[in-house]
Structure formats: structure tokens, C-alpha cells
Amino acid sequence: MVFPTFKMLIAVKEHSAQVHGKLKENQQNEVSMAVRTAAAIAHPNIAFIKYWGNKDDLLRLPMNGSISMNLGTLYTKTVVSFRDELHCDTLKINDKEINGEALTRVAKFLDIIRSMSAEPRFASVESVNNFPIGAGIASSASAFAALALAGSAAAGMELSEAECSRLARRGSGSACRSVPGGYSEWLAGDDDQSSLSISIAAEDYWDLIDLIVVVSESHKKVGSTAGHRMAVTSPYQQMRVESAPERLLECRNAILQRDFNRLAEVSEKDSTMMHAVMMTQNPPLFYWEPLSLDIIKTIMDWRKDGFPCFATLDAGPNVHIICPASVSAALQQRLDKIPGVKEIIRSNIGGAAVLV
Ligand code: PMV
């Protein structure tokens, strides 16, 4: 799919003004504000250098920078409509009415949009994903990147890519990396203004594939928002954060030089370091399943034998296996033969979040 540029697509569909209400005594019609709607598509991303732990939980300012690639085959499409008749924000995900914590999180995010714009009304949010949510494929990243873009446009704002990335970060940290296209680096920053993501290489710069081995589709028990808060309780977190700049440099250079082995070594190490922190924080978080570990070890062996591939895991048991596009069919055949592997989702690299 070829996406038009971010700026070209900044356009808000304003439906024709609705006339409602009865004729007033003075015989004048009461005309409501238009329903304002916008829709956006954003891709989830997989991090090579991971984000884990905040120095400010409310603003979601991360303890360390991170680098990821967008997953072009997977997407969230979100439609936001600000309407007169609503008495609260509403949320539908994959056609299902959602209440509780997820709705509260979205409503708080819409509050930020309302505070930035001249739009005071409540909104309906309808979101569709083409991949399993809450199981280590960063659905909150694509969800809040799409919501930031559609919500701000529906509220009448034309945000720059940087402004949209900052806004998306407030919903879910990793969402700020799904706003720019291709390979994205989140500059940790130290305040709201300086913490945002930029594209370090476009999606056509280097043709990598993510083969996601779905170990479990069930929703994770402890989400990343709660997990980030407890990262500081691990004795390894400080060491991980302090050494992150070296790995960021190594990862950035590996991408810019299209050096697969270098990217593999640093990414695998960084993923294991993040999971070591997760497993040793209080309470401990074990996202890996036995099958996840079997796959990680198999992938390491294959790479030792000269097959270009590496494994990385986010906050879930599913294993993301990254490889050059040229070997992805052969790799998929090998993976299909691993006992217990049920489903493999294949994604190429993706572009920026766009209005549709
Ligand atoms: O954006 P969050 O709060 O869902 O955190 C995501 C954290 C990891 O996926 C585990 C790592 C990352 O950098 O994406």
C-alpha cells in the first residue's frame, strides 16, 4: 500500500451542519455545530532497543530512548467523531462496545485533545485491528498513534508529525514511534516538548520482515502501564538504562549501514536485558512461555549456523523473528516445523500514521 504524505492528508471531514431542536419562540432554528469526524490508520511497531520504565509516568517520559520499525501489514484504523448528542466519550474496538479501564484511558486522552483545541464535545471512537490485541504485538502503539492523528484532526487541529508523536506518547509511550514511518527513534527527552520520535530511515531503506510466532492470543494479565511503574524495583534497571545509549548508537548505525548481524546482536541482547528487568522487578513479570524460550534458543542456533535471523519479544509471549526479506520464505518454512507453533503472522516494514 502506498500512503500519501502526512501533510497532504491533514483534512477534516466536516459533515454538513445538522439542524435539530424545535423552533424557538422567536421562530429561529437552533443549529448545532457540525459533527466533526476524522479517520486514521497507524501501524504497530517492534522495538529493537526497548522502552521499559518512565521517569515521569503521567507524561510517559521514558528512562531511555528506543528504536523500532513499523509493521506495515498490521494496522489499527480509528474513526473519531465529536458529536453534540453524546453525554460521555464512547469506545468500540473491533465492533464491540468497550467500557471500564480501556474507555477511561481513551477518555483521558481525549481530554488532552480537548484541552489543546477549541473542541469541547464528547467523541465516539471506533477502532478496528487486523491482528490480536494485548498479546505482545504492540496494539496500544498503533491504537494511540491512530487516535492521536484522527482525534486531533477531528478536533480541527493540523498537527505536525512531531506534535502528533508527542501527543501519541501521552496515550502509550511506544505509540509515539508509530507516528513517523519506517525505522523510528524515540528521543527520550526530559520534558513533554523534547520527548518524541523521528524517522531515522524510511520504510524502503532496508527490506526487513517480522515473522511473529503467535504463542498465545490471550490478553496479557499485567499490562505495560503497570509494568513500567515497577521497573525501578529491579536491581538491573539502572544498569540497563545507563548502558542504553551505547546500544542505541550500535542499533542506529546497524540500520543506517544495513548491517544485519550487528542489528541482530544488539537487538537480541537488549530484548533479553529488558526481560531480565521484568523478571526481577517486584512483583516479577514473566512474559515468556516455555515455547517462547524454545524459539529464542532455536533462532540463536540458526544464526550461529549462518542463517540471518534474530528474536525479540515485547510485553507478551509472542516471538518476533526479524530477517531480511530475501530469506523470509525459507525462514517461515523452518518455523512451521517447530512443534507447538500454531500461527505465524508475517509483516513487512510500514509507513507513517496517515489520515484516511
Ligand atoms: O507503550 P507501552 O506502554 O505499551 O510500552 C511498550 C513496552 C515494550 O513493548 C515492552 C517495549 C517497547 O519499546 O515497545
From TrEMBL:
<keyword id="KW-0443">Lipid metabolism</keyword>
<keyword id="KW-0067">ATP-binding</keyword>
<keyword id="KW-0456">Lyase</keyword>
<dbReference type="GO" id="GO:0005829">
    <property type="term" value="C:cytosol"/>
</dbReference>
<dbReference type="GO" id="GO:0005524">
    <property type="term" value="F:ATP binding"/>
</dbReference>
<dbReference type="InterPro" id="IPR020568">
    <property type="entry name" value="Ribosomal_Su5_D2-typ_SF"/>
</dbReference>
<dbReference type="GO" id="GO:0004163">
    <property type="term" value="F:diphosphomevalonate decarboxylase activity"/>
</dbReference>
<dbReference type="InterPro" id="IPR036554">
    <property type="entry name" value="GHMP_kinase_C_sf"/>
</dbReference>
<dbReference type="GO" id="GO:0019287">
    <property type="term" value="P:isopentenyl diphosphate biosynthetic process, mevalonate pathway"/>
</dbReference>
<dbReference type="Pfam" id="PF22700">
    <property type="entry name" value="MVD-like_N"/>
</dbReference>
<dbReference type="InterPro" id="IPR014721">
    <property type="entry name" value="Ribsml_uS5_D2-typ_fold_subgr"/>
</dbReference>
<protein>
    <recommendedName>
        <fullName>diphosphomevalonate decarboxylase</fullName>
        <ecNumber>4.1.1.33</ecNumber>
    </recommendedName>
</protein>
<dbReference type="InterPro" id="IPR029765">
    <property type="entry name" value="Mev_diP_decarb"/>
</dbReference>
<feature type="domain" description="Mvd1 C-terminal">
    <location>
        <begin position="211"/>
        <end position="338"/>
    </location>
</feature>
<dbReference type="Pfam" id="PF18376">
    <property type="entry name" value="MDD_C"/>
</dbReference>
<keyword id="KW-0444">Lipid biosynthesis</keyword>
<comment type="similarity">
    <text>Belongs to the diphosphomevalonate decarboxylase family.</text>
</comment>
<keyword id="KW-0547">Nucleotide-binding</keyword>
<dbReference type="InterPro" id="IPR053859">
    <property type="entry name" value="MVD-like_N"/>
</dbReference>
<feature type="domain" description="Diphosphomevalonate decarboxylase-like N-terminal">
    <location>
        <begin position="42"/>
        <end position="196"/>
    </location>
</feature>
<dbReference type="InterPro" id="IPR005935">
    <property type="entry name" value="Mev_decarb"/>
</dbReference>
<dbReference type="InterPro" id="IPR041431">
    <property type="entry name" value="Mvd1_C"/>
</dbReference>
